[in-house]
Amino acid sequence: MNISSGILRRILQAPGDPGKGGDTRGRRIIGIVAAAFFMFFPLLPFVDNYWIDVGFYVGIYALLGLSLNIVLGEVGLFDLGHTAFYAIGAYVTAILNTRFQIPILFLLPVSAVAAGLFAWLVTAPVIHLKGDYLCIVTIGIGEIVRLSMINNPLGLTGGPNGINGIDNPRFFVPILSSRQFYYLLWAIIGISAFFLTRLQRSRVGRAWNYIREDETAAKALGVNVRHYKLSAFVLGAALAGVAGNIYASKQMSISPESFTFMESSLLFCIVLLGGLGSIPGTVLGALVVTVFPELFRPFAKYRLMFFGLALLMMMIFKPAGILPRLRDSGDRLRKTLEGKKTRKSHPESGSAQTSAGLPESAQANGKPLLRLEDLDLSFGGVTAVSGMELEVAKGGITALIGPNGAGKTTVFNIITGIYKPMNGRVLLRGEDISSKLPHQIAKAGVARTFQNIRIFPSLTCLENVLCGQHSRGRAGLAASMLRVPGQRDEESRMLKKAQACLARVGLSDSADSLAAALPYGKRRYLEIARALAAEPELIVLDEPSSGLNDAETTELSVLLKSLVEEGLSVFLIEHDMNLVDMVSDHVVVMQSGKKIAEGPMCEMRRNPKVIEAYLGGEED
Amino acid sequence: MSTFIEQLVNGLTVGSFYALVALGYSMVYGVMKLINFAHGDLFALGAYLGYSLLTGATGRITASMGLWGGMAFTAFLVALSVALAGVLVERIAYRPVYPSGRLSLVVSALGMAIFIQNAVMAIWGSRPRAFPASVVPSLRFSLFGIPVTLLQVTILGISFALMLAIWLVVEKSSFGAAVRAAALDRETATLLGIDVRKVIFFVFALGPGLGGVAGLMNGLYYRAISFNMGWNYGLKAFTATILGGIGNIPGAMLGGLILGVVESLLAGYVSGAWKDVFVFILLIAILIFRPRGLLGEKTAEKV
């Protein structure tokens, strides 16, 4: 009693401590206990077929919850129409089985592919929509699918009554009994959870999380946001399709009633109840949502009312969910890579060094690294940048200064591809990058930080910095799930690199802390480390000293100079003229969207135009 | 041509329900940036309260106040109680969850919707209820050559009067300016001395109040009401909100009326069974091609 409550307390309280990743050992114990429970549950003496079936439906919701968790939990996309994909899986199975007598288990992958394909078709045109808008679209998709099933197109779906006479699956022996169905389903859940856990600890899973935490930062650091959002939808839908297949064969009949908005919102609640992005949490959420109404069956009339209240209470008192996802420590990540046999991975001499992966040669060959030509951009009649041009030399520090509202950050946003200029070109090493997307620009060698710090608060510092390495890796869904050797090598290379970059800014000690727990000044450094991890040629810093005290600013200037010594080029926006004076080789002054002067800082201090820009004209 | 006119009048009537419900969504979204998923169920609550008042108490109310006075009093009672329910919803389900972020808010809103829907079911039962026939005398007459019923004229009259009143309050009064300011930028509005709590109280009372009246009129118009009707109406009204431009008050009214008309014409000329599918395809198309809606303004993404 004492022991178990102790474990329970550790498990429930661990995430309350925002500093560290949490207690993984307690979690593992409960995981083993839970797995054993699910394995032996149908064999327990007092468990009859009724409760085995309840266990089966817990499984269906767990599988659906895991599938929605990919979209909602990992990527943070509000999907309130997930039942549509479940329905597609169920109907594909039902139609193909009843018309062509194709065996159920053969239809399992078919349903998955059909649901995934459907998800791709319907979400590709809308994936760019933000938050609530995407949410509404998914509700619409859910309703369109359900209403279409009711309307019986081409006589395929059987209308409101649905389809009857679906076969049972056959896996060597026919699967008929409640117990057999239970084990078939939970085996599939086990396999899915295994691969999903692998995904969580991979480049793909992290990319999903980066998007959830801060989409803009993710894309500016090289994550192809569109690609990863779509892949999450497709994978999530495929898994929901699998659930649909098993559900249809268990029920032997399906009808549109099973695929309502209520089901979608229930799935949404399962994921949030368990804890966003948490695999064990999702299973637990499914358990709660399925068993809770069963226990209240005597109060049939009021049970859903209580359920609604319970959801409310949960969000008031424990918004992070019952079992929130714990982040992996750096050690854990490394161990996962090494596997059981400690693979002797020879540290490549190059990346083991502390240098933050800098370009080999830094010869200043006279050619500018970055060149802006005649840039124009306005927002609804307000001109932000007009006719702006400048050059950033290779291997130096260029500063962009100017009064508030001069358009400096807009220039940065154009360089990094967040905004598209209406006119003009951005040349990186002579190549026009103005039509490229942010993640392509990051890959081409430009990394940035943000004026209002944009870190990924609920990830560890190490994971934050790993984001920079994203564009230097290639491993996709399949490679990450199968953990092929190339993927392991790539991961360990990324890990080393990220650790080196953290060390570079003096944050090694905080590697496993959540970024949200860092004090303000350190967050700026974390952003810089993240940008360095992208192995850029040009690093673009938006007011790096803002919010830092004098000592920290001096430290920053030392760091910037040493980066340049190693061959990096720096372009920064700065309001602290002392810092600009200390570090910059060249200064460009902007006012009202235009360049008004450039040269060394000492000249700028005397330039009448610059003085006027900062102090205001005398005629005014 | 006569079917066209008939569908048009029918569409405008349904559209005015959508418009009144859409106003609630739009005002709440404007200030809170939150889709009040419970709003549709508050609409249903209004219908049921109206049903109880009309079958139970109104015999007495109409006897003492006359038909129109009695109806007006019923509508007033319904609006008041649903407004109270709306304020309670905000206090219980949204205010405590607000600091935990959008996802938690969605879940607590869904939880509240489930609660209200099932509370209605627990009180009034799961079978549909029927409004008493001919509360408003079933008169048919011709208005400028268009055949209408007295009920339609009444509903349209009340709806347009309410919409005009809201429009005047929101666009012309200084309190309306506070509401619009809070919708534009809540933080700055607070800094400028606007009591945002008052604004929130206002939108959560007024929105559901209007929704409740719409529920009552909907019951009078179709006569049959069911405990889960709120979800479908809510979704349609939300579509109307998006169509007009979310957070935009005149947009919500326009969106509701257009949606009602489009829907009726689709049902009349294309297919009744598929009309809802078309409506949702329309919704998705708007979001792809004009996400700010008909009257919404474009905003730049701040980085």
UniProtKB/TrEMBL annotation, chain A:
Topology within the bilayer: Multi-pass membrane protein
Main subcellular localisation: membrane
Signal peptide feature range: none
Region annotated Disordered, chain positions: 337-362
Subcellular location per the Swiss-Prot or TrEMBL entry: Cell membrane
Residues spanning the membrane: 29-48, 54-72, 102-121, 181-199, 230-249, 265-292, 304-323
Cross-referenced InterPro entries: AAA+_ATPase, ABC_BtuC-like, ABC_transp_permease, ABC_transporter-like_ATP-bd, BCA_ABC_TP_C, LivM-like, P-loop_NTPase
Domain of life: Bacteria
GO molecular function, one term: branched-chain amino acid transmembrane transporter activity
CDD domains: ABC_Mj1267_LivG_branched, TM_PBP1_LivM_like
ABC transporter domain span: 370-617
Key words of the record: ATP-binding, Cell membrane, Membrane, Nucleotide-binding, Transmembrane, Transmembrane helix, Transport
GO cellular component, one term: plasma membrane
Coiled coil, from the record: none
Gene3D superfamilies from the UniProt entry: ABC transporter involved in vitamin B12 uptake, BtuC, P-loop containing nucleotide triphosphate hydrolases
Entries under PANTHER family matching the protein: HIGH-AFFINITY BRANCHED-CHAIN AMINO ACID TRANSPORT PROTEIN BRAE, HIGH-AFFINITY BRANCHED-CHAIN AMINO ACID TRANSPORT SYSTEM PERMEASE
Protein name: ABC-type branched-chain amino acid transport systems, ATPase component
Organism: uncultured Spirochaetota bacterium
